């Protein structure tokens, strides 16, 4: 079925100048980018986004990282896009992700893993609402 996912290009992606390469992989796969913006994540937004991790021992470090530089929030639409993107990203840790995946090719870190993507339809809805207003989604004909 048609789905939407929230993709975040994290601070390491922006600082290393890998935004274009990673956006290209989604475009080349034929996924539709229907909204996109660069923003500075605040501690408040981080706690909302990572609500399920706030109690975890690594949360403090994750919040420092995600608020350390701007991120690019992208709404992506496509068939089964939630699973498709997670497969493209590879395992959470760049140390475990297979070569050929985005994290496998560009990340050597568990925390600085370049990209976040929603893990279910429920989290996609919740996360898209955190970053975008309904009027920000742009529909267009994809020819990919
Ligand atoms: P993400 O897919 O955005 O979801 C939660 C993030 O927390 C994850 O990517 C990593 O950036 C980070 N993370 C997950 N597990 C750990 C861990 N064990 N130690 C440090 N950071 C982690």
TrEMBL record:
Keyword list, A-Z: ATP-binding, Cytoplasm, Kinase, Magnesium, Metal-binding, Nucleotide metabolism, Nucleotide-binding, Phosphoprotein, Transferase
- Write down a Pfam family by its short name: NDK
Q: Where in the cell is it found?
A: Cytoplasm
Q: Which domain of life is it from?
A: Bacteria
The catalysed reaction is: a ribonucleoside 5'-diphosphate + ATP = a ribonucleoside 5'-triphosphate + ADP; a 2'-deoxyribonucleoside 5'-diphosphate + ATP = a 2'-deoxyribonucleoside 5'-triphosphate + ADP
A single Gene Ontology molecular function, please?
metal ion binding
Signal peptide stretch: none
Extract the InterPro entries matched here: NDK-like_dom, NDK-like_dom_sf, Nucleoside_diP_kinase, Nucleoside_diP_kinase_AS
What HAMAP family does the record point to?
A: NDP_kinase (MF_00451)
The UniProt entry, under PANTHER family, shows: NUCLEOSIDE DIPHOSPHATE KINASE
The UniProt entry's sequence similarity note says: Belongs to the NDK family.
Assembly, per entry: Homotetramer.
Q: What is this protein called?
A: Nucleoside diphosphate kinase
What's the source species for this entry?
A: Rubripirellula obstinata
Q: What is the lineage of its organism?
A: Bacteria, Pseudomonadati, Planctomycetota, Planctomycetia, Pirellulales
Per the record, the gene is: ndk
